[in-house]
TrEMBL record:
It holds the Pfam family Hydant_A_C. Residues 205-491 form the Hydantoinase A/oxoprolinase domain. GO terms for molecular function: 5-oxoprolinase (ATP-hydrolyzing) activity. One of its GO terms (cellular component) is cytosol. InterPro entries: ACX-like_C, ATPase_NBD, Hydant_A_N, Hydantoinase_A, Oxoprolinase-like. One of its GO terms (biological process) is glutathione metabolic process. Residues 6-184 form the Hydantoinase/oxoprolinase N-terminal domain. Residues 506-676 form the Acetophenone carboxylase-like C-terminal domain. SUPFAM superfamilies: Actin-like ATPase domain (SSF53067). This is 5-oxoprolinase. PANTHER family: 5-OXOPROLINASE RELATED (PTHR11365), HYPOTHETICAL 5-OXOPROLINASE (EUROFUNG)-RELATED (PTHR11365:SF23).
Amino acid sequence: MRCIAAIDVGGTFTDISLADPDQGLLWTAKTPTTPDDPSQGFAAGMAKVLQQSGKTPAEVIAVLHGSTVATNLIIERKGSPLALLTTQGCRYVLHIGRHDVPKQAANMYLWVKPPRLVTPEHIYEIPERLDHTGRVLQALDEAASIEILKQLQAQKFPVLAIALLHAYANPAHEHRLQALCQQYCPDALVSISSNVLPQFREYERTMATVLNAYILPQVGRYYGLLERRMQALGVDAPMLIMKSNGGMASVAAAAQQPILTALSGPAAAVVGAIAVARQAGFDDCISIDVGGTSADVCLAERGEATLTVEGELADLPLNFPMLDVHSIGAGGGSIARVSPGGSLQVGPDSAGADPGPVCYGRGGHEPTVTDAHLVLGRLSPALLGGELQLDRDRAYDAIRQRIAQPLDLSVEEAASGILDILNHTMVGAIRATSIERGYDPRDFALLACGGAGPLHAGRLAELLGIPHVIVPCQAGVLSTQGLLSSDIKNDYVRTLMQHQDVLDLTALDRALTELEAQAQAWLATEGIAETDQQLMRAADLRYANQGYEITVPVPAGPVTPETLEQTMAAFHAEHQRLYTYASPELPVEIVNLRVSARGPAWPFAPRPLATRDSAAIEPSQMRSVYFPALGGFTDCPVYDYAALSPGTQLTGPAILTQDLTTIVIEPKHHARMDAYGNLVMSIPA
């Protein structure tokens, strides 16, 4: 027998799945995350699911892992001290940045630029210079470089970042400087821009290189801890790490460029959502993954998640190909407070896993969204199969004292208001992912996952006019299903500026061919057979003199006038969709060429569930649940999800309980269970 473990470490809980690919069987578990050392929660989850399944550590043939470790290091500014080596005259590239203000800034005149990860006194200028074509204007001054490196060795920096001007066009100086670093600073790790992000725009490329360096030592240590934890459990299997682009890579590859895993956890949930939506018969879906701390929203069209190369994290740019996930501070642990102005606020602060919501009884005093659900009867008094007992009286008192009394509301009105505010916050995130990008959410199904997503999905669909909601069979641990559905994947980019009036087809063809050769070599090192390798071309285009680009596909095969014409047509069409206009009469510039490489990892296909006599299914209990649409509390049937059979149909109001999540079917909503145990709800217009 053999099995595959998939483990996603979130901010509040660690989700675990164990799959038997031969039998199509799946076991799932959830355990609290251990923020001080996430590897402890990882090991506890692995041990828990092995015991639950009856499998032995020796039967585990692969471990798939998604994590927020890199994300948290950046958000909490807990990375490593580092020094930056840059071209003479470019010391302040990071600090100048861009002359823009984040959209979420409440007041552009009060917004303060976030502190940079490396201060000017730790930025060292190297005498050298290239022009934008890669031509050497000033040779690398090795003697001066060696003197600087001796200073850095004396200061014992654990990691060095190298970002030289125009290194994307010619990496020779960076490679030589890296060799000198290895000679004169042998204990320091090195991150170079021509490996991390070989494309133009100095600020973004330098920031990417610094971010990669900033988290390089800690992420490497974390992976080392994981391997030791696995050895202690007796698990001797290769590990793959989830990346922000929705693909996976070996630990060795992820450890070299940990910045590519910055959105690892959210990306895993999106991949899982797409797989489940396909099972349920929907190619177009908007996924919302609501955990204890955050909600992550992503749109998928024709079975493919939307990608962006203009992401950001903690107000810092991440110009890598990544799933276009919109994250907000909204989850089951979001704290409700009355502001000094007398209004009710929910989030973005979270009670997290420790102390958690008030109802956990672990020392929390501020009411949360979970407390509101419990008070309104939407949650059972025990979660995680009875492991987590909830105290409704504590939650009731906290909402009464801190929310209801200051606002002169009943406790039920206050709790319902908490849910309303969180719902509208999540509606804003869905609108930002759809309407603001040229999509109508009514053309999509809403797929809800995470521990809290199915509690809110029906109401979100009502507010947005979305006709269908999908709740996966394993909604509480869907991110692990994404890990089991992911491919090995990596992305390659090269800046090659070409104007439509003077196109060098030979240069374009050569550059794409070289990128594909890099991609094929990487896939081979990851163990992907040549027959299983898939390569996809793309290019970043813009109208001449624009300051932004749009990524569109490039047909396979030799670059010809016909293939370029198809690429240009795709650009005009995408510009029309995004900005409501196109200007085919204007010249177009090609800025960057891209190749995406993928191959199968450890695919798992769940088997359909056995059908039972759905007519015999009865509620496990009746519970008084608060529904504003019905004017208050009403007797509501509560069903055990595990007792339902494919083909089961229910009409709300109803509550469905799982070990890892709770599903609310709102009044007049209709629900049907499909062959794989996923629930598909139809929302009346």
